[in-house]
Every structure is written in structure tokens, then in C-alpha cells.
């Protein structure tokens, strides 16, 4: 059999790979249909096509929505290596979300540290874990992120505001907003909505 073709490691992926990836997302990922996703990947490979990073990240999304975080992490370890692809911030973000949704916050932290060690811890990774943190845990994480040389974005700041709002901690949300969102980071409509949510 000829080696799989995809453009996964260089250039643009083929239209066929893009088609399969879209089907994977539309037909399987949202519903957490792991069996369907695996069947599509087998069909891809049968046509001599190799998945791209986007394809495999979509597969991780499928495992997340199926509430199978351990299988998602095993997939990251096995499939990414098999296809010569490096996980990115989206990959680790999805794993953090998968473990957080399952209630295993210790594993979510472990994945964050894995992302840092791999040099893939971007804003998405920190935003993902904030979803599951108590308000008191947010400021130290923000400081840790800044010490690692990452800049705040409105996405990260909104994730922090969301943690405060979900806990009903309006004072913490307002203090965070005043400290971090009156300079380079410009609030958007969601920022103000979260401030109001925390005040209710």
C-alpha cells in the first residue's frame, strides 16, 4: 500500500482529508460517537489518507463529548505519535476539558503541566482549566501564566470572570476587571455580561 497522503506535515491537506474531518466533526464529535469516528478514520486510512492535526483534535473532541477522558489521553499518546503530529494548545485544552467535565480536576492539572512541558500551553489551555476552578485559584493561575511569558487576552480574562461569576463573587470579578481589563486587554460584550452575572 502506498504511504498515506494528506499534507498533514506540510502544505495544505487534500480536499478528501478536509471532507473527512468535517464529517468527523459534524456526524460524530458533537454526539460523542466514538465508534462512528473510528469508522471514518478507518475509511480515510483505507483510501491512503492520513489525518491532520485538525482531524485528530476533532477525534479528541469526540472522546471529550463521550465523557471518556482516559481514552482521549490514550488517543493523544498513541495516534498523534503514529502520524508524526505534535499536540497543540487545542489538543491539551480538549483533554483538560474532558477531565474537568468528568470531575477529575487533578488529572486536568496534570494535563496542563504536560502542555507546559511540551511547550504547547497557550491561552486556550489556561482558559480551559479556569472553568473548573474556585475563585481563589484564579489569580495565582493568572500570575503563573504571566510568569511564563504569556500575555492576557480577552478570552483568558473572560474565563477568569466566568469563574468569579459562577461563584457569585462580584467583588472579585470587579477587582479582576479593574486590574487586568482597563489597559491592553479590551473587554467585549461577554466581559460586561459576566460582570453583570456576578452581581446578581
Automatic annotation (TrEMBL):
Signal peptide: none annotated. The keyword Repeat applies. Keywords: Repeat. Transmembrane segments: none annotated. InterPro entries: PPR_rpt, TPR-like_helical_dom_sf. It holds the Pfam family PPR_3. The keyword Transferase does not apply. It comes from the Eukaryota. PPR repeats lie at residues 52-87. NCBIfam families: PPR (TIGR00756). PANTHER family: OS03G0856100 PROTEIN (PTHR47447), OS12G0638900 PROTEIN (PTHR47447:SF17). This is Pentacotripeptide-repeat region of PRORP domain-containing protein. It comes from Emiliania huxleyi (strain CCMP1516).
Amino acid at each position: 500500500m502506498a504511504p498515506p497522503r494528506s499534507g498533514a506535515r506540510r502544505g495544505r491537506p487534500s480536499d478528501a482529508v478536509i471532507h473527512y474531518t468535517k464529517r468527523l466533526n459534524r456526524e460524530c464529535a458533537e454526539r460523542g460517537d466514538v465508534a462512528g469516528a473510528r469508522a471514518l478514520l478507518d475509511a480515510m486510512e483505507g483510501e491512503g489518507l492520513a489525518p491532520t492535526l485538525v482531524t485528530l483534535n476533532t477525534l479528541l473532541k469526540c472522546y471529550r463529548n463521550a465523557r471518556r477522558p482516559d481514552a482521549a489521553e490514550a488517543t493523544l499518546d498513541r495516534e498523534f505519535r503514529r502520524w508524526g503530529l505534535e499536540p497543540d494548545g487545542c489538543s491539551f485544552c480538549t483533554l483538560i476539558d474532558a477531565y474537568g467535565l468528568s470531575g477529575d480536576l487533578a488529572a486536568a492539572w496534570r494535563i496542563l503541566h504536560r502542555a507546559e512541558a511540551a511547550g504547547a500551553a497557550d491561552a486556550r489551555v489556561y482558559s480551559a482549566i479556569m472553568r473548573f476552578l474556585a475563585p481563589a485559584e484564579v489569580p495565582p493561575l493568572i500570575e503563573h501564566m504571566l510568569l511564563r511569558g504569556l500575555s492576557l487576552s480577552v478570552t483568558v480574562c473572560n474565563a477568569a470572570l466566568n469563574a468569579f461569576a459562577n461563584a457569585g463573587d462580584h467583588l472579585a470579578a470587579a477587582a479582576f476587571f479593574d486590574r487586568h481589563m482597563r489597559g491592553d486587554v479590551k473587554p467585549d460584550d461577554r466581559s460586561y455580561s459576566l460582570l453583570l452575572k456576578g452581581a446578581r
